[in-house]
């Protein structure tokens, strides 16, 4: 996947989660999905939808009387781009530094460590 995923703000992630969960959705459906989760006014949610549309992260179906919105990127693509951006900003682009710090800071169960070993073994055999 070589698509360049545009940067998504924390608030925009909340909108995207709703659309990844189920789409296409109308703006009103997005608003009602977020009620109780975020203390935003409907106008704020519509502004975020417009911003995501302008960034070309969300598409709009205008063929019906009521517009519906849908994601243009898979959640995994956005997570991968966000991870890369984080590693570049915080760890100078070196994943090893991040992993070492994570492993030193976190208490990993034997099961977690075994799963990580299997992932590394699989990666080295590819």
UniProtKB/TrEMBL annotation:
Pfam families: Penicillinase_R (PF03965). One of its GO terms (molecular function) is DNA binding. NCBIfam families: BlaI_of_BCL. Belongs to the BlaI transcriptional regulatory family. This is Transcriptional regulator. GO terms for biological process: negative regulation of DNA-templated transcription. Keywords: DNA-binding, Transcription, Transcription regulation. InterPro entries: BlaI_family (IPR005650), WH-like_DNA-bd_sf (IPR036388), WH_DNA-bd_sf (IPR036390).
């Amino acid at each position: 996947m070589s698509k360049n995923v545009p940067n998504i703000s924390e608030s925009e992630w909340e909108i995207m989660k709703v659309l990844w969960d189920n789409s296409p959705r109308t703006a009103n459906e997005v608003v009602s999905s977020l009620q109780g989760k975020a203390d935003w006014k409907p106008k704020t949610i519509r502004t975020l939808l417009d911003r995501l549309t302008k960034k070309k992260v969300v598409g709009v179906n205008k063929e019906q009387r009521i517009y519906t919105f849908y994601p243009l990127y898979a959640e995994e693509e956005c997570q991968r781009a966000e991870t890369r951006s984080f590693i570049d900003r915080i760890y100078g682009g070196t994943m090893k530094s991040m992993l070492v710090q994570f492993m030193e800071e976190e208490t990993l169960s034997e099961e977690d460590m075994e799963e990580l070993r299997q992932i590394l073994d699989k990666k080295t055999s590819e």
